[in-house]
Structure formats: C-alpha cells, structure tokens
Amino acid sequence: MREEIESIVGASAVDERPVHDLWPHGIMEGRAGKPRNRVLVARPVERAHLSTLLQLAGANGFNVIPMGGATGVCGAVSPSIGELVLDMGGFDHIIEVDETNLICRCEAGVNGMTLEQHLNQRGLTLGHYPSSLPGTTVGGLIATRSSGQESSRYGNIEDMVLALGVVLPDGTYAAPRPGLRSAVGPALHQLWVGAEGGLGIVVEAVLRVHRLPEATIGNGYAFPDLASGLECMRAVMQAGIRPQLMRLYDAEDTTFNGYDLGAGECLLVIATAGLADVAKAEAAAVKKFAGDAKDLGDAPWERWRRHRFDLSADLLKAFLEPANTFLDVIEVAGTWTVLSELHTRVKTAIGVGPLALCHFSHAYEQGCCAYFTFGGSSETEDGARAAYEQAWEGTMSAALDLGATISHHHGVGRARARWVADEMGGWVWVWRAVKEGIDPEGIMNPNSIGGVP
C-alpha cells in the first residue's frame, strides 16, 4: 500500500509513525505501556491527491482519517494499524479576504491563529477563539463543531461557515455553494460541521468574518453564590446583550484561578464590545444586572486576557506524565433551568480526586455550557483509570437524565461514542442513513461521529 500512496503524493510526503490526538484516556494507556500504533501518514498538497487516495482506499478497503492540528481531546484521531492518516497541513493557503462583504476563503489546513492574525492586520476577526487556537486548523475546528471564548458575541463555528468545499469518499468534489443563505434545499454543508472526518474531507471553507470592535470594556464581579451568578448571565443574554466574553467560575474554580474572594463566592468575568458608546452602554447595563455583586474592576478581565491560551497540550501531557494520574475536561450544556442541578450532579460525579472545577461560558438566551475539569491520582494505574471512567459515566448519565447535551464543542470521538445513540434518539437512524449513503464503503474515519454504531 505504501508504494501506491507514494506514487500519488511522492515518497517524501509519506512516513510511518504513531499518531494520536490529546485524548487523556489514550495518553494514560500509553503511559501504562500500551504501544501507540504506527500507521502510514501522507501529506497531500493537491485536491487531486485526495481524490485518488480516497479511490485507492475504496478499492482496497482501508480506512482514511483526515488530521488537522490533532488538538482534539476525544480520541477521534486514534488510528489503528492499516489505516491511513492524511495530514492536511499542506492545504494552508488563505485564498481571499473580501473586506467589503466580510467573507474569507481559506483552505482547511490553515492554522487558526495564523488566520486570526491575518484578519486582525486588516481590522477584521473571525471571532473564534478556543483556548487551543494556536495549535488548531480551520478544518479541525469545523470537524469538531468547535466553539470559542467569544461565542456569545460571534457565534460558534457553524455560524461562521457560509460554505464548504469537500472531497467525498468516492473522490468526487463538492464545491462551495454560492450565497449568504439559500432556500435551494437544506444547507447540506452543515453535515460536515461536526462529522469528525466521517463523511469526507473538508478542503476549503468560506467563512463569515467581522470588523474588530472599536472598544472593549471588561470587568469582574464577585457573586455570593453560583445561582446568583447564573441569574446575572441569563439576564444579560435575554436582554439582547451579546458580550464578547462572559465566564462564570464556581467557588472552587475561582480559588483555583488565584482569586482571593470570600468563602463560596464566584467570579464572573465579562466584557462588552462594539462601537465605543455601545460598549459603554452595555457595560453599564451589565453592572445593573450584577446588582449587589462586588465590582472588582477590570483586573480580572485583564488577567484573563493574558492567560487565555495557557491551557496547552504541553500542560496536559505534563500533568499526565507521572504514573497513576488522571485528568480531563468535559463540557456539557443545558437550559438555564437545569444548570444548577447539572452542576451539582456533575461535581459529585467528577469528585473522584482533589481537582473538581467548573466554569460556565458559551451562553445563549436559552442556556449555557458548563465546562468541568477533574483530576487526581491513585495508588495504581488501574485505580486511576477506574476513577477516570467513573467521572465520565456519572457526567454523561447526569447530562442525559436532565436533557442536557453530552457535548457542547469537543465532539465525540471514542470518548463519547457509547452515549451518542442515547442523545440522538430516533435521529441516529437518520445519521446512519446519511453515513451509509455518502460513504457506502465505510472508508472514512471509524472513530468519528460518522462511524456511530
């Protein structure tokens, strides 16, 4: 197989090595001695390469896994022996920035931070800032249905995608459709937003961009408890304010982040943005919604800005390097009426070690995402894995019981595969039909939502 692949992309563009994303469970397995699979990795640079490689896979029955920055944390990039990984880093061109119509066209391998800096130089922003942005690619953000720190203002990745260019599993190309919005059938490109490489390969994206705000006003407030902080967030969103950032830390996360507040107090960091007068007016409205909460000034906002990308792959790997340790993050989301109970139940589930934190961000008029971090150590590797799995089991059960989603923006991969059908319900049959219709040979990423059993 290697010789045939080399004949398509060139010998220098093919190598064999272990490949994996940042799924903590996989890192723990590797630490415990389970060897990483060595697989073929090809780096195509032309669309024709992709078409030919997929046709080769269909004819020979091997799986293909597209790979962006490999910063995912759910095991969607965890190939088995005999599978082919496609490193999409060669598709790294920013094709066009239309400053009049606020549209950007770029290839899927463009680095997320590189794109943002390119836009910033023109007074523009995509407005998509996951903490992993420096290591991401546009295609990876799309594949995982990503959300960013400024989503309450700019939306999530699906709100930014106007059109996609996709190489289908049979090698044919579906070019981006025109228009800001079309009533000529469903927006079919949205099937690939969150498909984790299970339906084909995203090659090009047409994205909605925004002008940078004239002013941004950030502030911190200390609430006496979590419930009052959540109520403030709900009031802000339902009043029509779209903050650039709104992040509420529970009491444990507030302390963990180094804020010396009173016992049980919860920190809210919030920023309004836009025209200077608008940002100022919205900041004043936020202060009213905060009520009797302590006004901490702009120091929490400035501190957050300095550390917004500190959650790195290196830190995750460093924490998990010692034997018998475990660490992970789980993001779920629900309506305002269930968030308090969701928080209570999940904090109980993840309380298997000394680290059990939560912050709320990515807010909507209807509800919000709750982002949990848990970690600790055990006397044995088996004990660490058992605690880790207990936390996941309890969290997924709590989310499903309360009608919350089991994933807000990290995707599915192998981490959540067991619970996909529980959340999808009858829609799982629709998804299976889509998968079988687009990829009848089943060659695309088997560890994706597209490969749900």
Explain how this protein is built.
- The chain is an alpha+beta fold.
- Among the domains are: 2-89, Uridine Diphospho-n-acetylenolpyruvylglucosamine Reductase, domain 2 (2-Layer Sandwich); 91-211, 2-Layer Sandwich (Uridine Diphospho-n-acetylenolpyruvylglucosamine Reductase, domain 3), CATH 3.30.465.10; 215-306, Alpha-Beta Plaits, CATH 3.30.70.3450.
- It is 34% helix and 23% strand.
- It has 16 helices and 18 strands.
- It has helices spanning 2-9, 24-31, 47-60, 112-120, 138-143, 151-154, 157-160, 226-238, 251-256, 276-290, 299-306, 313-320, 336-350, 381-401, 420-424, 427-438; strands at 14-18, 38-42, 64-67, 84-87, 94-98, 103-107, 124-125, 161-167, 173-174, 201-208, 210-211, 215-223, 245-249, 266-274, 294-295, 325-335, 355-363, 367-377.
- The strands form four sheets. The chain has a seven-stranded antiparallel beta sheet, sandwiched between helices. It has a five-stranded antiparallel beta sheet with strand order 5-6-10-8-9. A four-stranded mixed beta sheet has the order 1-2-4-3.
- A hairpin with a 5-residue loop joins strand 8 and strand 9 (173-174).
- It starts with a helix and ends in a 15-residue tail after the last helix.
